[in-house]
Design brief:
Length: 652
Amino acid sequence: MGNDNPRCKGITGEGTQCLNTAVSGSKYCKIHQRKYEDITTKSWWLSMPVTVRVAIIGGIFSVIAAIIALLPRIIDYFEKDKPQFIVENPIVRPDSFIYISVDNDIEIEATNLNIEIDGLLIPGLAKLEITGARPRWSFVPDLSGLPEEYLVDGSHTIRIGVPGEDYMHERQIYFSSQPLITEATITNEDSTASIVGKVASPAQIPIDTIDVNIAFLSLDGTVNRAPVSMTQDVDEEGRIIFKFSAEVHGIPQYEKTDSSYNAPFFAIEAKDRAGNAYKQTASYAKFIAPGSLNFSYGDLADIMVDGYSEPESVITPVVSVKPRVVKDVGDGSPPIVLRVRTIGGNNELYWEVKTKALKSGGFLTTIYRDGEVISSSFLDTYTDEFMLPGMDHEYQLEQTGHNGTLYRSNIAKAGKLATTFNNGTGMEFVLIETGSFSMGMDDYPYYEGHNAPYDERPAHIVEISEAIYMGVTEVTEKQWYSLMKPNSRVSNSRANYPKSRVSWNDIQDYLEKINDQDGDYIYRLPTEAEWEYACLAGLKPIFREPVTLESFDAYYAEFPGEVEPVKSKAPNPWGIFEMLGNVSEWTADWYEEDYYLRSPKINPLGPETGTHRVVRGGSYENRHRANCIGRTWNKPSDSRFEIGFRLVAIPR
């Protein structure tokens, strides 16, 4: 049998002989004694040169890599008509706002967004807070009703969608709630101090960053910041740490007798992207003491990690217990009382510490605006000069005590409100900013041995926590009839006289009409506390006897025996006319003789029920009541010649 057997195709050469396996059953070609099946079944792939096969494999992997790289664009192409969202602050504390905005050109008019975290859907959770070309929604995870296991530190999957649509866009967020752990050493030599330390976040989020600020006071009382060098590293235990160093030059020289010697001088603050912080301060005496001054809170050894990974992956840590947060000192008031006033286009913040744990002083105060850190201060005041036009802002403070406890203030609101405005009826209003004052009086200093009337006692602190607009004058005849009897004609001689002989009940009809007409403000009578606060205008009470304050001389000139036109006398320091004298004024409150004994501290509204309403300010007929403290009362149905009213306006 020759070599023409088709199964031996390709096996040629001298002496070649191929056996027909179908006849002989042999599976061998006699040439080189190789197995017949090895030769006859050799594939086209193996028959190629090795270099060709390597090139093909490399090409296939290149194509796969290119497809993977293009996958996001491919997905975007097919989802280009779907809303793409971006989480503006992907690293956040669970008790802070998460801000969401649109990342493509899709227009969304939804006032709420559906939020799904780790598979748990909460419809309509995110609320619209900024409209326009780039709308923004927000929500607070800790206030959303999420179970605790969905709020633990680490990585979480968030899906965002528009109500009524099935599509939801997926993003990654990280919760981080632990205070930073910092170890720092300060070494002094001559007039230079060297600061070396390291800081870490227990949450161990790979994409997180930490900033360190070091500040000290100069001789002129200004705050100086030392340049800080930062490097990220991984320690031998696999923990992500940030090393920092700085030098403070030109340290002031204070004598031991100087009041600044034991006062706060130096502060170190570390903060991560979520707003978690480490803060510590030292007096000048401690700062310049010989040797090293060590600062530490916790221990880096408390941070246990499963191993370090690159930033693309997530480390699951075991962390220490959360620090205690104090928002209430036991009587309903915060440990730090914050107030905000808008003056000259800026928001001025001032605060008072109420807890003994912080009264030793020397604590650096962190200042938050709308949930974001904007500054820190050694002092108890701060001026915010960088407000957004047309927006109201919320402020809060935070201090860290010696034991690591976080003390937080109340949230105080402020905004760029106009200082005055005129409405459609010609009424003028002036802005009355928030503040506290002493309401009532225990005794009259000008009447030795005489107590104040029972219903004006005791003197007590009242806080007006929301700004209001107060009518510059009492409501006039012209303003009254323009709404109540628009077709009637008021003589020019009476147009600017205060509207009197009007009952409290009649005023409710007037309020209904003016509120229906004006869509920008809500009008009402002032509360008794608001009235007294505006009357005092930041000064101490004015009593029955003459005083030397020139700005109030007009109030204590001889009152005429009849009503005068509004603005006949000088205004008080806040620009309000005739709060004393002329006509008495209705307020919103029911009257109760001993109400001051149980009046709440913040925004008191008076008793819930009663038979008489409070009247304030005295009049031309009862000049002995022409002071900011005196209280009188009348039935709501009474209308008297000597009683009128002024309004308060609140922006809608």
